[in-house]
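Rotation project, supervised by the postdoc (A.L.). Task for the rotation student: set up a whole-complex structure prediction and record inputs and outputs verbatim in this book. Inputs entered:
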Amino acid sequence: MQSSLQIKNLQLFRQKQLLLSLNEQVNGGEILTIMGPSGSGKSSLLNWITAGLNSHFHAEGEVWLNGKNVNGLPSHLRHIGVLYQDALLFSHLTVGGNIAFAMPKGNKKQRIEKIEQMLETFGLGGMVNRHPDELSGGQQARVALLRMLLSEPKAILLDEPFSKLDAQLRAETRQLVFDTIRNHKLPTIMVTHDHSDAEAANGKVITLNTGQAKC
Amino acid sequence: MNVEPTKTTNIEYKTDLFTRIVKFSPRFLLACLLIPVLAGLIGVVLPAFGWAPALSQYKIGLHGFTALWQTPGLVQMAMLSISTGLISTLLAFIITLMILAAFFNTVWLNYIQRLLSPILVIPHAAAAIAIGFLIAPSGMLSRLVSPWLSGWELSPQGIFPHDAMGISIILVLTLKELPFLLLMALGVLAQPELGKKLRAQHKVALSLGYCPMTAFFKVILPNLYPLLRLPILAVLAYASASVEMPLILGPNTPPTLAVAIMQWFNDVDLNLKIKASAGALLQLAITGGLLMLWLFGEKVVMYFCRDLLTNGEREYSGAFWQKLTSVLITGVIGFILLALVGLLLSSVAGFWRFPSAIPDQLVLSHFQSALTQMAGPVINTLNIGIVSTALAILLTLLCLESEQLRNKSVSRFMSFIIYLPLLVPSIAFLFGLVWLQQLANNLSVFVSVVLTHLLFVLPYVFLSLAGSYRRLDPRFSNVAASLGAKPHKVFLKVKLPQLFAPILIAAALGLAISFGQYLPTLLVGGGRISTITTEAVALANGASRRTSAVYAIMQMVLPLIGFIIAWLLPKFFYKSAHH
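Outputs recorded:
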């Protein structure tokens, strides 16, 4: 069965005021782009999908993942990976430790081999024992991507993931992230300010105004 | 040929007095903390080896230690100090972690913080008295289960509160240190950058499939623990050498080492003072040993847990631990509330037959008679508290200002020294101070007591104010300076008004700490200055429970008033600013 992330009849409120309503389905490998000014509810939308909506907001509607309603599940059981604008690598762990943290448990030797092999494919060969702070911004972004990918998510959310990278790096990293998403056929929702992100995503774009969703 | 000196066009600028005072203040603060502690330690080492001019003893030798080793039950005393200190610290630490892990990033954490923070300001002696009443054979706990459950018609023979194993001491120490550790941890997490980063990383761990409790232990704790280390060590040092709690709740056959040392020191037999000094050195060694043991344990735990962090295991029956934590915290809060209710009832009870949960008659006579004797101690308590807190606030503000003028925060050495009076068992260096004071003999008792209180008030005031001071937006002072305001004007007119509320809170905390000091007041005051706390401890084991309850309540009310004022004043001022 094809993987999919579905948002059914979402109505998102900030203190009783309707911020946005949405009814969308994203299939595996597709990237739905949500654009809009700050305060339009973009980030709250992502928080709602991961069951982390804060108490000022209130939402009605359902999230379906691969044909199953996941509304009742807490954040950590939803298997939805998120990339933020900061890499948010754990500074008490090495690069390899960060990735091992995300992988399912298993044989220690096989896990280490897999980490080294994946680091190699992402152009991070030999960095397994480095500290995250020693890495450049682009390298950190790639480790974060790899970390999320190896946690075997069923869907991906991108929360302005490239906004802190400079233009050149931005294009490269974006290409890598999008290629990875398409290769793994993961349904993805991206929130962004940047039109070039939306164009590169090459999917449906929804632009939010404050308080109203327009398609 | 003479060469004309080239004329410089530099503008002469002489640093103003304020800036010089401010820049000097950290050294002064260091001196205030280091000199008494070091002098006190020297003053205890010398008599321990027999050199005590105050007693006209000049024979250097080991007879103090010989006498100490020959004390019957010495090993038991030491073991009691070690076990109560270590177990209570471990328990408080573990419960703190469980609460943080179960409720990290939820509103519950704020509720728990609000419920537990008042306990922080209850003096140790008052807490011991209240809990002692609760667990006594005729206390609230046994009244509530009698006779329907226990079958007791008469108050039973019980081992509490003076049980030989020190369980009562462990119980009270744990309850008292738990809120301290929790608030210190929440303080770390309230640091804007670190807190934000850790909350975001916790969210990442959730999105990677980690149960919230596991995420706390694998992601937050490794970053949080290094910043909690000093407070934990301070708790351990205190717990292993505290005097008033074992004095009120501990066994007497034998007591903990710290209590025994104090009894020897206060004995009329002057030779026992040499033994007391030797005992103080043993106490130092025990506390030092415990601190080393903790640091070693840390290394061991870290070594064995390193692989666990990245093994990919996401769930260690989190739901079970979450429920257990909820039950535990409800129990803790219920226990404390019950103790307070019991204390209140005791203070107004007339005749109170055994299994009734409520006194047969309520009277105010205990309050009336106690209050008439209380005026002197209350005035002493307030005087000492206000002077030492005012000094602590002044010194702290100057030091924090110097930090901003120099544009770098205090050195690690300095942040360690601020903790020094909390890490060295006070029973050890206070004796030394008393010896020295008897040698110098030119300071008034009041001044000595105030300066000693300052040692214990300063760390708390500094820790309480430092956060807010460092969070001040520097742009306000930059704007003020660019408008031509001199440094002292920026400090007084721009910074202090913004810090009004935190300064009041720090002052209330300082007062609470000073109000609660038992040993410094008793020893340095030479028994000549009585405060609410010294009276409460003295009464706890002798006089009637009712009077003791009144004193314990008074001990809680005084700091509470301070905090209420600190909470109300800013509201009042802000309100008047709006109109």
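Student's summary: Chain A touches chain B at residues 50, 52, 55, 74-77, 79-82, 84, 86, 88, 90-93, 96-97, 100-106, 108, 111, 147-148, 151, 153 (CB under 8 Å).
Supervisor addendum: DSSP finds six helices and ten strands in chain A.
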